[in-house]
Amino acid sequence: MTTTIENPNYAYPARSRGRRGPNLEKAGWIFMRASGVVLIVLIFGHLAYNLLWTPGGIHAIDFGFVGGKLANPFWQWWDVLMLWLAILHGSNGMRTIVNDYVHKPAVRRVALGAIGVAAAVLIILGTLITFTFDPCPPNADPSLLPSFCAER
Questions:
Q1: I need a surface site. Which of 7, 82, 113, 123 has the fewest CB within 10 A?
Q2: What CATH number does the domain containing 87 carry?
Q3: Residue 79's domain spans which residues?
Q4: What are the φ/ψ torsions at residue 148 (nearest 5 degrees)?
Q5: For 40-68, how does the pLDDT look when each residue is reduced to its tens digit (9 = 90+)?
């Protein structure tokens, strides 16, 4: 009795022999490894600062703490880089899953388009919020503002 194993590249091989141009699958693979390493540094740095190096630890994290942290350009860029890499890393992972398991070209295009649109919207909104966040907006009702806004 013999068993025949199907070719695992039956539907969409990552790279055809006669194909020219950049190898986007290889670039995606390398990006996942590099962004994963950078994300580990960014996430653990974020956690260490917020939980270990801040006096009071987790109990000190409140609206004022976040407002003060986002007023510092260093932490703005740290958080934006972490946001961008996390969204791009996750989106690339979802793209890989769709390419592996969705075999109908029209459905794949729709799924990949939805992933791309979702990633773009999240990156744009997250970046906008990070750089425009103001815990003490002008002309706001003073009873709704945090206590540190009265010092301005």
A1: 7
A2: 1.20.1300.10
A3: 27-135
A4: -70, -10
A5: 999 999 999 998 988 888 888 888 888 88
Q: With 0-12 CB in 10 A as exposed, 13-18 as middle and 19+ as buried, what is 107?
A: exposed
- Taking each helix axis from N to C end, the angle separating 73-101 and 105-132, rounded to the nearest 10 degrees, works out to 170
How many angstroms separate the CA atoms of 52 and 46, rounded? 10
Would you state the structure tokens that stand for residue 144, as one six-digit string?
């709704």
Q: Scan for tokens 């670039």, then name that residue.
A: 27
Q: CA distances (Å), 57 to each of 21, 54, 105, 135, 148, in order?
A: 51, 5, 50, 21, 20
pLDDT at 16: 58
Degrees to nearest 5, angle at CA 91 with 109 and 67 = 135
